[in-house]
Amino acid sequence: MNFLAHLFLSDNDAPVMVGNFIADSVKGNHFLNYRRSIANGILLHRAIDGFTDRHPVVGRSKQRLRQKYRKYAGVVVDMYYDHFLATNWSDYTNVLLETFVSETYQTLQTYVSLMPERSQRTLYYMQRSNWLVGYATFDGLGRALSGLAGRTRFVSHMEQATCDLKLDYPAYAQDFSAFFPDLIRFSHHKLDQLRTSNLHS
């Protein structure tokens, strides 16, 4: 669910960004149905998710939430981390968040006809409510979490997660600051690997 981080980690490469965006809607080996540059984005997304799930700092964040949110703790942490990326955006790039988001929406719209229907719907609502910029505020984050809660199969309590973020804000901020540079390094290395593999495929 951490759309902002995935898009940011796409190295300003439009097809990679598209693949990264649609990855949750592309199951199994169906990535082979896409041209290699978009498939790289799908594979990068999966690698980012795997790295994130295994990282001890992320595990620490999830542990604070597990008793209340159970299997949704990881989703909540993803959203918290997108909040911290949005609020600390200038620590990681010289491009304004609003500029990045506007250009990202334009890029994704260019490829919308190639996207699965689920991803097309997500993009429509994301752009209409400007989720990516909204993550920076408690109100915007709360709306996003409430929207997720309304779409889950089981009771998730995610609509309450902004309150829990406020209670332990410095701890989650510290976790994000410790984790995100590791994720940036991993993502750059993984994308380099994927691009290099193209030369031998």
Integer average pLDDT: 94
- How does the helix and strand content classify structurally? mainly alpha
Q: Stretches where pLDDT falls below 50 for ≥5 residues?
A: none
Number of domains: 1
Tell me what you see in this structure:
The protein has 201 residues and is mainly α. It has one domain. The protein is built from eleven helices and no strands. It starts with a helix and ends with a helix. The mean pLDDT is 94.
Feature tags:
mainly alpha; 11 helices; 0% strand
Give a short overview.
With 201 residues, this protein is mainly α.
Question: How is the secondary structure organized here?
Answer:
Layout: H1 3-8, H2 14-22, H3 36-54, H4 56-69, H5 73-87, H6 97-110, H7 117-129, H8 131-134, H9 138-151, H10 161-167, H11 169-198
